[in-house]
């Protein structure tokens, strides 16, 4: 009897949740949200010609409530990000926390074009007849990006065209740089085949591929074992050649490490038994 009551209660909750979702999706007008809640998207000018000073980063969005026969504006704002440092007792329990705002925040006009400008707004639309689209963010090539990245945290805000979609799909961070950065989709699968990420390893891979090793390349690697195993073999060969080169050994460049300036940092390596 108890199992029947529990099942009935769960079924009632599920049906209620479905009704609420259906109300949000179909009954109260157009809403917009991102297509995923992936936190960070890496973009680097390192792949662009030196003469390029601005680029457009495209973020996919999804409309809830059907298409329209006209273009609809998506409104954005920049929001702050925070670090949380936890304090623990001797038993490992959290006893306190300190919240501080991140200092690597992108600066409007320096690192990106303001969202409400005539340059930016035409890029931030869902085109007529579409329920999925990509909105464009104009990012700027500031000289400081060669030494470190900045973070542009975006949040969708409501306007006359759209209400807000699900709260977990309203924000995303673009990490802007002008140097090699860890691709945002370098994940467990990538680690499994290629090992932990480091900028020096990334540089070696670019030298071997003789082209981009970016999100698109990593996506192919994550979805094709034959592709990633083939390239891993070439990476290992290149690493062995570098480390055995007498000139590199004499200069102290070999063996190749994650931090070339720290003789105690980890050696660059790739998994070999997978």
Written account of the structure:
The chain has about 270 residues and is of the alpha+beta class. It is built from six helices and twelve strands. The longest helix has 26 residues, at about 1-25. The radius of gyration is 24 Å and the shape is globular. The N and C termini lie far apart (about 50 Å). The model is unreliable at about 1-25 (pLDDT under 50).
Question: TL;DR of this structure?
Answer:
29% of the residues lie in helices and 25% in strands. It is an alpha+beta fold and 274 residues long.
**Which ranges are low-confidence, i.e. pLDDT below 50, for 5 or more consecutive residues?**
1-26
Radius of gyration: 24 Å
N-to-C terminal Cα separation, in Å? Answer: 52 Å
Report the strand count. Answer: 12
| SSE arrangement, N to C | HEEEEEEEEEEEEHHHHH
Helix content: 25-40%
Indicate the topology:
Layout: H1 2-27, E1 31-34, E2 40-44, E3 54-64, E4 72-73, E5 75-78, E6 82-88, E7 94-101, E8 125-126, E9 132-140, E10 150-157, E11 163-164, E12 171-177, H2 188-194, H3 199-209, H4 215-223, H5 225-244, H6 246-251
Parallel strand pairs: 1-11, 2-12
Antiparallel strand pairs: 1-3, 3-9, 4-8, 5-10, 6-7, 10-12
Helix pairs in contact: 3-5, 4-5
Which features characterize this protein?
single chain; 274 residues; alpha+beta; 4-stranded mixed β-sheet; 6 helices
